[in-house]
Design a protein that fits this description.
This protein is mainly α and 455 residues long. 55% of the residues lie in helices and 7% in strands. The strands form three sheets. It has a three-stranded parallel sheet, with no helix packed on it. A three-stranded antiparallel sheet has the order 4-6-5. A two-stranded antiparallel ribbon has the order 7-8. It is elongated.
Length: 455
């Protein structure tokens, strides 16, 4: 028996929606007591199912989990499962959200993305006989790349194949379009398909609209991370007291993947989901508004502390860093430099060219001497902003990896330390820049920076 919930108005109406489809001529009792009406509906459905059904397929159950009626819907299902257990009835429920029923009556089978071979086979199956009649070696490269670009998501593969079958778009256009706008893939003929299956953007929008406002907000912010992030990072960027509840909701809706095998646990967005997160951020309309620069600063702020922990990391632990936090450290440092350039209204190279013209501002802090008297001393750790923090912490990364971005970080740090009057760290940046140029064989530049470090 198959029951589709596409037309269900709310979870509180689940019993009234399902019962007439399972029990002919059923009439609800004349009472306003919701619990009594639900119990009567459960009894009627159980009697019918115990007589003639062994498997009941319920499709699109997330429709019942929207809003205040979710509790009523779950209560109805829990009671119905208990009432039909002796009759051997089993329920197969499809949902974008875990039901999390009580009493361990639920077994969850997450539907993972298809392996590449399976995704390719699905594409050829759905693309039609005319397409399969073309010699496979002429199409396999494009089909394989399309399947990779959509992360093996069955709906995305089907949409692309359907577009080919209907003569809507050729393979090379689909492939090129996915590089530019990965969510802009939909079937030419939408007849017979529910709204949520008519395109990738429509599918993500359907799920996004089911989220609570805190979960929507966090979902919009998740695209800021590169690769995966741990819980403290997400908490720092989100900055609200409900971040943990929002994160759990995103995991339950399978928008965020949780890696429980990592220590600590890590969370990530699949590539296509990340694209919709970025789109949702750009189209955010709720209050308060979202300022991307603010959240980039929070991200850079957090990963500067992570970089500080890894500053003196032994070489044997570098692989661990690269596998977890390096992408976010690199991104945070890049945003710190952008923030630095915005504050100064010039690029780092432009600031470096007129370094001696820039004002120097010494930062002081008050201390008590041994007699308890307040005195003002120059701080050993001057306030040079996030750019200076990254330059100080990542000098070892820069030299060992010899990245172009590293030169920019060191240059930004040197400008920041110069303005802060921190000659020690300014000289260190000069020396590190000399090492960087020397590692690339640019010896004249290396010598110039070495000389500047001792000037």
């Amino acid at each position: 028996m198959f029951v589709a919930l596409d037309a269900l108005a709310s979870g509180s109406a689940l019993g009234e929606f399902v019962t007439p489809r399972l029990v002919s001529d059923y009439r609800f009792p004349a009472t306003d007591d919701a619990a009594l009406r639900r119990e009567d509906a459960v009894r009627a459905c159980a009697n019918a199912l115990n007589q003639y059904a062994r498997l009941v397929v319920v499709d699109n159950f997330e429709s019942a989990l929207d809003g205040d009626g979710a509790g009523d819907a779950l209560a109805f299902v829990t009671q119905l499962v208990a009432a039909t257990e002796t009759g051997g009835v089993r329920f197969l429920v499809t949902s974008r959200h875990a039901l999390n029923l009580q009493n361990d009556v639920e077994e969850t089978y997450p539907v993972a993305p298809l392996e590449l071979k399976d995704a390719i086979d699905l594409f050829y199956t759905r693309a039609g006989e005319d397409f399969r009649a073309i010699a496979r070696h002429k199409t396999i490269a494009d089909v394989s790349e399309i399947c990779r670009m959509v992360d093996g998501l069955p709906l995305a593969v089907e949409l692309a194949a359907r577009a080919v079958k209907q003569g809507h778009r050729p393979l090379n256009e689909i492939r090129a379009g996915l590089r530019v706008t990965p969510l802009d893939i939909q079937a030419a003929d939408n007849l017979g398909y529910p709204e949520r299956q008519r395109g990738l953007a429509a599918s993500f929008r359907y799920t996004y609209n089911h989220l609570s406002p805190p979960a929507q907000r966090l979902f919009c912010l998740m695209h800021i991370f590169r690769g995966s992030a741990d819980r403290p990072a997400i908490q720092h960027v989100d900055g609200t007291v409900v971040w943990e509840m929002a994160l759990s909701e995103l995991v339950d809706w399978y928008l965020v993947r949780a890696d429980s095998t990592a220590d600590p646990w890590r969370y990530a967005l699949p590539a296509l989901t990340e694209a919709y997160s970025r789109f949702a951020f750009q189209t955010w309309t709720l209050l308060p508004p979202l300022d991307e620069n603010e959240f980039r600063h929070r991200h850079a702020e957090y990963y500067s502390t992570v970089a500080a922990r890894f500053d003196e990391t032994p070489m044997e632990r570098w692989r661990e860093i690269e596998d977890t936090d390096w992408e976010n450290i690199q991104q945070g440092a890049g945003w710190a430099v952008k923030e630095f350039e915005t504050q100064h209204g010039a690029t780092v190279d432009e600031l470096l060219a007129r370094l001696d013209e820039l004002p120097t501002v010494m930062h002081h802090h008050a201390q008590r001497d041994s007699m308890g008297t307040m005195r003002d001393d120059a701080s050993d750790r001057t306030d040079a902003g996030l750019a200076g923090e990254y330059a100080r912490q990542l000098k070892n990364f820069v030299y060992r990896r010899r990245t172009f971005e590293g030169r920019v970080w060191l240059s930004a740090g040197m400008v920041a330390f110069h303005q802060a009057g921190d000659k020690k760290n300014q000289a260190m940046m000069c020396n590190e820049l000399g090492l960087w140029f020397g590692s690339r064989g640019e010896l004249d530049d290396a010598l110039a920076w070495y000389e500047r470090s001792v000037a």
